[in-house]
Design the sequence.
């Protein structure tokens, strides 16, 4: 009998703890009254973006082969399209095609803020040109959108930043601290020539930045089951990247009397093992932050689970990893992408190889990953990492930068909630880690999740409303600091 009471008491206490924590799991959303309105000339903004799209600043994977004339043309275009900004701000051309602007603030004791984007765009995949409603470099303004490569990634961000700067200059506004603008010219091929050089330049001048805002998550509806409001996804970290090559060597010769395992067979087994032995799933700090913001917006059942991860963590991981986005948030992902073996059906290959693409979660390193691969495939197989980047640091959500972005989000997209998250792809922003503690990745545009597929895809386009919202977002951000 006393046992029964003890169990009953334990259940009551547990229920009280769970419910108490759920009740304390409150929405982080608040309202911000937007600054009383300057009228935004959307038509003018659309024309300026259209002009930027018409210049095909296409990235080439081999920088030596790139056509650089459009990049030079782009620099001139910005100068002519945004005369007010170019008169008031200092502009430096870095490494021939990247741009760094400085808008001098009134208070020299404040650390500068840096707003970023990039000039280059990905090419249009061969054979898909005909699928575009309007040619990808036409910059057509039609059906309430500006169309073309770069309207979402990310000439929109360049144009919107400059739009905001021009409106504020026309208002006679001077920022408190310096505002820098940096537009690199090779983000799509890692940013060695652009962002890295600008970051080094700032570092050589001893400049430390208060915070950085680069391209990143958008405001999307329906991105997460169980949440009704649009989510403004603000990247506080980005994953690392590694292409790991594994190679097996075997005996060449005729295939009529083969060994038990050919080189190709060994690679097949190694690949199967790597897919089976995934990196561990973890609720890392960035995921905790994300769930703390998004959880309170959900229904009671999910709220109960997310408020009590100390108890439901293992269950949460089990369920969450079944979806692809959930899996990618929980762990370093493993994707076998390239296989090479023999070329002739009746000849034993002397060599076979595979490339596995990993996206490394913060908290793990490239070395950890190589050790993992070696451990899994065994010592008969050679392991090398021809391309690898470490994951970024995780920027705080309680600092000045995240708060400023959050306020600007609420002033511009009032129905949404700002949510910290991790960017799966790489951005230029990581290059600035030596000069900045607070680095964020967000693009102020409200789009559907289907629309996001247009980035790097077909029929990339930006709605005219987004031109207005984006301009207001940057004005709010710069004004409220
Ligand atoms: Zn981009």
Sequence:
């Amino acid at each position: 009998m006393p046992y029964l009471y003890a169990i009953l008491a334990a259940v009551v206490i547990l229920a009280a703890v769970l419910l108490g924590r759920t009740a304390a799991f409150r929405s982080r959303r608040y309202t911000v009254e937007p600054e009383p309105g300057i009228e935004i000339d959307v038509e003018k903004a659309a024309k300026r973006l259209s002009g930027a799209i018409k210049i095909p600043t296409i990235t080439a994977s081999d920088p030596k082969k790139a056509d650089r004339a459009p990049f030079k043309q782009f620099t001139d275009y910005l100068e002519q399209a945004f005369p007010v900004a170019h008169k008031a701000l200092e502009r430096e051309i870095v490494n021939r095609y990247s741009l760094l602007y400085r808008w001098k603030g009134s208070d020299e004791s404040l650390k500068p803020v840096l707003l970023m984007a990039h000039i280059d765009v990905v090419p249009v995949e061969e054979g898909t040109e005909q699928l575009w409603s309007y040619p990808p470099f036409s910059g057509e303004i039609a059906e309430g959108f500006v169309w073309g490569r770069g309207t979402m990634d990310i000439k929109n961000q360049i144009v919107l930043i400059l739009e905001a700067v021009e409106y504020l200059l026309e208002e006679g506004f001077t920022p408190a601290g310096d505002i820098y603008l940096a537009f690199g010219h090779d983000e799509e091929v890692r940013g060695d020539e652009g962002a890295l050089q600008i970051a080094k330049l700032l570092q050589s001048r001893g400049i430390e930045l208060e915070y950085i805002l680069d391209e990143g998550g958008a405001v999307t509806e329906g991105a997460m089951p169980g949440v009704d409001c649009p989510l403004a996804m603000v990247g506080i970290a980005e994953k690392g990247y590694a292409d790991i090559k594994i190679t097996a060597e075997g005996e060449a010769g005729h295939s009529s009397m083969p060994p038990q395992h050919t080189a190709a067979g060994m690679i097949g087994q190694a690949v199967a093992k790597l897919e089976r032995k995934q990196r561990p799933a973890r609720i890392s700090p960035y995921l905790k932050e994300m769930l703390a913001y998004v959880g309170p917006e959900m229904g009671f059942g999910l709220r109960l689970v997310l408020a009590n991860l100390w108890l439901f963590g293992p269950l949460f991981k089990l369920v969450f990893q079944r979806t692809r986005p959930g899996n990618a948030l929980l762990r370093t992902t493993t994707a076998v992408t390239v296989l090479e073996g023999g070329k002739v059906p009746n000849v034993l290959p002397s060599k076979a190889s595979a490339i596995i693409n990993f996206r490394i979660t913060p908290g793990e390193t490239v070395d950890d990953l190589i050790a993992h691969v070696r451990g899994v495939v065994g010592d008969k197989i050679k392991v090398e990492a021809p391309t690898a980047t470490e994951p970024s640091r995780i920027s705080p959500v309680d600092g000045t930068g995240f708060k400023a972005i959050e306020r600007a989000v609420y002033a511009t997209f009032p129905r949404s909630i700002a949510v910290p998250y991790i960017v799966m792809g790489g951005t230029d922003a990581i290059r600035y880690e030596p000069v900045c503690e607070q680095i964020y990745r967000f693009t102020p545009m409200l789009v559907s999740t289907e629309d996001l597929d247009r980035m790097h895809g077909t029929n990339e386009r930006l709605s005219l409303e987004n031109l207005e919202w984006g301009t207001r977002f940057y004005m709010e951000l710069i004004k409220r600091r």
